[in-house]
Protein 1
Amino acid sequence: MRLSALRLRLPLRCVAVIGALLVLVLSAVVATGCGSSPSGAIASPPSPSAATTAPSATTMPSQGSEATATPAPTAPVPTGEVTAFVGSSAPDFRFKLFQGDESLGKSELNLSEVAGQPIVLNFWARLCGPCWSEMPELQDFFEERGDQLQLLGIDVGQFTGLGLPKDAGKLLDALGVTYPAGYTDDASVVSKYRIRAMPTTVFIDSDGVVFHSWTGAINRQQLDAVVERMLAGE
C-alpha cells in the first residue's frame, strides 16, 4: 500500500516541478519583451508640432521613368547660382512658342534672335509643382518690367520626364500666363544650361553672357534683386 502511494506521488511532483519551470520561463520572456526595445523596432512618429519644409524644386526623374498626372513630392533642392556656367556665352537653341508671337515677332526662332537685350530665361515643365507656384510671380514681373528686358519661358518637360509639349500650353492658359512661352526640341539644352532641377531660371545680359543662374522656384523679390544687379552692369 505504501509503495503504491509513493508511485502516485512521484508523477504529481514531476508535474508540479514542470509547471513551476514553465512559469519561470514565461516570466523571463515577458520581462525581456517589456524591457529595452529590440534593434528592429519601428521608431515612433514625429510629434505633430514638427515642422516640414515644402519642396522648392522638382528633381528630375531618372531616365526612362514614367511621368504621372501630378508631380510627386520631392526633397528640397538648394537654390542659388551655378558658378561654373556663369560668365560664359548663353548657348543658342531653337524654340517654338505656345504664345507671345506678337512680342517676339514670330512663333519659331533661335535664342540668338532675341539677343541684344537682357533676357530672363525660365525653364519649366507641366508636371513640376514649383514651376506652377512661380508663374504668377513671373507674370507680375512681365506686366511691370517687360519693357526693360525679355522674359521667356521654355518647357523642357519632354527631356526631364515631367510632361510633353502637347499638354503644356494648357497650364499657361489655366494660370493666366501671357508672357512669351514655348518649348524646344533640342535635348542638349538640359546639359548646356546645367538644368539639375526644375524650375531653373537663367539671367542673360544684353551681350549674351550668362549673368546668373537660379535653381528652384524664384519669387518676385529674388527676381527683382538679380535683375537690378544685372541691369546695373549694362
Note: The first helix runs from residue 2 to 33.
Protein 2
Amino acid sequence: TLRRKEAPNTQNMMSFAVNKPRNFIKIYESNNPEWVDHWRYNHDTDIVLDKPAETVFVKYIGNPGVSVIRACLHLIPKQPVSSSIKITHGYKVNEKDQEKTVQFTNSSEYAITCKDDVENTFIKIEAINS
C-alpha cells in the first residue's frame, strides 16, 4: 500500500464474475488511514453464487500492488475430486508476456523471481483429474 499521508490513495480491490470475465461484482475495496506505514490485507468472506457455475473469474487490482493471493474455494464436484492442481501465472517483464506453470498434488507454494519490474496479468487455477 501507499504509506502515511498517501495511504488513503491506495486503491486495492477484489471482484468476481461468473462464466465470463465481464460485469465484475466488487467484494472488497481498501480504505487505509493516514497513519499506515505497513499494511497486509486479509479479507475473508463467503460469496454464494445464485446458481452453479462452470467458471468463476476473480480480479485483483493492486494499486500500488498485490504481493500475495490466497483463495479458499468450496464446491460440489460433478466428478471425483481432482488429484492435482495446475496453476498458470501470467505476467509481463519489460513489456514482454511471460508465463509460469506449476502443478501440485499437495498444499504448496511457488515463487517467481524477476530482476526487473513485473506486472501480473493473470492467474489460472485448474483441477487436473487423474
Note: The beta strands are 13-18, 25-29, 56-61, 84-93, 96-104, 118-128.
